[in-house]
Write a structure and sequence with these properties.
The protein is built from 9 helices and no strands. The chain is an all-alpha fold. The longest helix has 39 residues.
């Protein structure tokens, strides 16, 4: 029984790892670059509200479309929803990288750095990047429906990194 559990866990881990590699290097990577590189479109330059995140990763629209329309329209909806979710993830990853870049530039000039705050920031950023990668793999594999909780958690961590008080850092170390 224990051997079966170990083998199942190892196989599931390998499948997830292979899916992650395919997503990072294969066709989906090119699609994500195309989506991320295009300007305008679904989001423009405005900040996406949390209600938009709820809609992108909701399963309610998918249920309605599958009940009320043809398979062709349902397939088109799923494909476009996946593209929209992947685009949101790429934008959030770029936004988090920009925040960290500004912070690194500002912290190079700061005289009052606190290692514990910097370590906390680094760990939160690593957590955020991992969440975005897991979310992207899951969206790529299964679609965005039902992943609202993870997307909201990632968005909350990003907003926490943006929030100077949540970081416990001085204004000049983040906003410069």
């Amino acid at each position: 029984m224990m051997d079966y559990l170990l083998i199942s866990t190892a196989i599931a881990g390998m499948v997830f790892f292979v899916a992650f590699l395919l997503r990072s290097t294969g066709e989906s990577y090119e699609e994500n670059r195309e989506i991320a590189g295009s300007e305008g479109g679904d989001f423009g330059n405005e900040h996406v509200t949390s209600s938009a995140v709820k809609e992108i990763f909701s399963s309610e629209d998918q249920e309605f479309i599958s009940e009320e329309s043809s398979e062709q329209i349902s397939s088109l909806f799923r494909r476009e929803r996946r593209r929209l979710a992947l685009r949101w993830i790429e934008r959030q990853k770029r936004e988090s990288a920009t925040i960290m870049h500004r912070h690194r530039r500002a912290s190079g000039r700061a005289a009052d750095l606190k290692p514990s705050r910097e370590a906390t920031l680094f760990l939160r950023y690593a957590e955020l990047r991992l969440m975005f990668e897991v979310l992207a793999v899951l969206v790529w594999l299964a679609g965005p429906e039902g992943l609202r909780g993870l997307a909201e958690r990632a968005d909350a961590v990003l907003r926490g990194i943006e929030n100077v008080k949540a970081l416990g850092a001085s204004n000049r170390s983040i906003s410069a």
